[in-house]
Design brief:
The complex is a heterotrimer of chains A (180), B (198) and C (201).
Chain A (H helix, E strand, L loop, with lengths): L1 H48 L4 E6 L5 E7 L4 E10 L2 E10 L4 E9 L7 H4 L1 H5 L28 H24 L1
Antiparallel strand pairs in A: 1-2, 2-3, 3-4, 4-5
Chain B lengths: L2 H11 L2 H5 L3 H6 L4 H33 L5 H23 L1 H7 L10 H12 L4 H29 L11 H15 L4 H10 L1
Helix pairs in contact in B: 1-8, 4-5, 4-7, 4-8, 5-6, 5-7, 7-8
Chain C lengths: L1 H4 L15 H6 L4 H24 L9 H23 L1 H7 L10 H11 L4 H31 L1 E2 L8 E2 L1 H5 L8 H23 L1
Antiparallel strand pairs in C: 1-2
The chains are: A alpha+beta (180), B mainly alpha (198), C mainly alpha (201).
Chain lengths: 180, 198, 201
């Protein structure tokens, strides 16, 4: 019995030591991670707002849309949305004019299987969606793209997922504009 | 996500082996015949369902309230290792025939990255208890299916003339690749398009 | 010196011992991912081999597996949060495969088969050799897959990459998908097997 107790104690000791070490490390590193995340979000917002000021983040009850930021003077909205990708959700952010036209879009965090969304991360990819959503509807497949089709030669899956999410955002923005 | 959505996603679309690269070692190692494939697949399904559920409980009752999410990897892997041990002991005691069938596969499951993988994925996707359990269960089913198909292919390959240097593991990988190609048909966009046009 | 190179060809962890396959295939979509993953694995492998060799006499046999798992998981978590803080791009593109280093069979395998029985310096050399072999294997797969699958070579995860014009214009997409990874792996294993036979002659 004492043998078992001793072994259990040793294992417990190893576990406790490990937890302690990690806690110490974490207390140093966690603030850095937090700062980096905030800076990242702010940088994306600045780019998407295109020089305009944005107001505080608000949560949205619409499924698929996580947060919204009003662009000052009612110039439109910036949305953080979830898109369906190959094997998992992707986070993207986009700014819209009040009539639903996409001003700019960015892929944020990519929880897809590693690397599948790689192409979508370069900003040129997301550029093909700019200007759509108002009078001209958002292209839903690559064949609807006149130019820039070669830019998006990557996974069809990713393209469709992003297009669906962006369209949803556009529709929601139009609804918000109509409500006032 | 709906429950049906989770089952379809983790069994077919994000099949652990064929699209997420998880659980490859047993996929290659235990797919020599269909009997052992079914044994391993069932054992994994069982452990995955339980592990996802318990990991969910740990995450939301211990790690998040105490604000120690950085210990997630350590706790999850310990839980899985303990769970595998307990399951092995329980099966040995209460169901000797089942132990005969699954026993040798159980210790191998701890290092099957699919188990830890699906537990971490469930937490990443903010699944609730039922969804986590279902994700683990469907991922296990997907693994069982891939393993069973592969064993069928390998039983046939045994009688074929395979180039000398490709015999065994290499040809298994290549056949697995061709199978993964077929599984591409279960692509999320396909489903999204189907749902939208209806 | 011979010990250092055993991991490269004769006992290459990926192609010959068939260990650590999941991360090898999953992250090998770009060369930079492969290098990052190898580095993370190498750090964990060296840490675990050293610690386990150091405490091999203190850890009772009955609890050696859970004890090793705790040690390895601690090292992995440390690497994980350090990467999140100082190399977010790499941390993002490797994603879930960083915590999954815990179940990389190379690490527990070497702890069990080597470090638990050998001296500190021998274990260090073993970790170096295995990590080196893992790196070579991973980078080889990634090089082939990225070159054929997207026609580029990415060395640092900062958005810049080398374009290989004819391939970048018409990439063979299947190589960047799971199917291509498995096929490349199969042929590389066959190639290494052939190489082993030729070298023996």
């Amino acid at each position: 019995m004492t043998d078992i107790t001793e072994k259990a104690l040793k294992l417990g000791l190893i576990g406790a030591l490990a937890a302690l070490l990690l806690a110490v490390l974490n207390s140093f590193v966690a603030p850095i991670i937090e700062l980096r995340r905030e800076a990242e979000m702010r940088a994306v917002l600045d780019v998407l707002a295109n020089g305009e000021k944005t107001e505080e983040a608000e949560t949205v009850s619409e499924p698929g849309i996580l947060q919204r930021w009003r662009i000052s003077n009612d110039k439109g909205w910036i949305l953080e949305m979830e898109a369906v990708g190959y094997g998992g959700p992707m986070l993207l952010a986009a700014s819209y004019k009040s009539d639903g036209t996409i001003v700019a879009a960015r892929l944020m965090d990519n929880k897809e299987t590693v690397g599948f969304g790689k192409k979508a991360e370069d900003s040129a990819y997301m550029k093909v969606f700019e200007g759509f959503g108002g009078e001209i509807s958002i292209p839903q497949s690559r064949t609807e793209l006149a130019n820039g089709a070669d830019l998006v030669s990557g996974a069809t899956i990713t393209f469709t997922g992003i297009a669906v999410a962006l369209e949803k955002g556009s529709k929601t923005v139009k609804e918000w504009s109509n409500q006032r | 996500m709906t429950y049906v959505g989770i089952i379809i996603t983790y069994t077919f679309i994000s099949n652990l082996v064929l699209s997420q690269f998880l659980g490859l070692c047993p996929f290659i190692g235990v797919s020599k015949n269909s009997e052992s494939a079914v044994g391993m697949g069932l054992a994994v399904t069982f452990v995955m369902s339980l592990a996802s559920l318990i990991s969910w409980a740990l995450e939301y009752f211990i790690l998040v309230p105490l604000d120690i999410e950085f210990l997630r990897t350590v706790t999850f892997i310990l839980v899985i290792a303990t769970l595998v041990q307990l399951v092995e002991m329980a099966v040995r005691k209460y169901s000797p025939p089942l132990y005969q069938a699954l026993g040798i596969y159980l210790p191998l499951i701890t290092t099957n990255c699919g188990v830890l993988g699906i537990a971490l994925i469930s937490v990443n996707r903010n699944f609730d208890a039922a969804e986590s359990f279902l994700a683990g269960f469907s991922a296990g089913l997907g693994f069982l299916m891939a393993l069973l198909f592969m064993s069928g292919i390998r039983e046939r390959l045994d009688t074929e003339k395979v180039p000398k240097y490709l015999r065994g593991a290499p040809i298994t990988f290549i056949s697995g690749g061709l199978m993964a190609l077929a599984f591409m048909a279960f692509d999320t966009a396909l489903l999204t398009n189907l749902l939208r046009s209806s | 010196m011979k010990g250092l190179f055993k991991g490269l060809l004769n006992e290459n962890p990926i192609f010959v011992l068939a260990l650590g396959l999941c991360p090898a295939l999953a992250v090998s979509i770009t060369v930079s991912n492969a290098i990052g993953m190898s580095a993370a694995t190498l750090v964990v492998l060296m840490g675990s081999n050293l610690l386990i060799s150091l405490f091999r006499k203190q850890i009772p046999y009955d609890i050696h597996i859970p004890a090793y798992i705790v040690i390895i998981a601690t090292l992995v978590t440390a690497v994980d949060i350090i990467l999140q803080a100082y190399s977010p791009a790499l941390s993002k593109s490797l994603g879930i495969f960083i915590p999954l280093i815990v179940v990389n069979c190379i690490i527990l395998g070497r702890a069990e088969a080597f470090a638990s029985k050998n001296t500190l310096s021998a274990s260090f050399l073993d970790a170096l050799s295995m990590g080196f072999g893992f790196t070579v294997g991973l980078v080889t797969i990634a090089f082939i897959r990225e070159l054929l699958g997207s026609g580029t070579i990415t060395l640092i995860p900062n958005g810049n990459f080398i374009r290989i014009p004819p391939l970048a214009d018409n990439p063979v997409l299947v190589f960047s998908l799971p199917a291509g990874a498995l096929i490349v792996m199969g042929f590389l294993q066959g190639f290494f097997r052939w190489l082993g036979v030729v070298r023996k002659r």
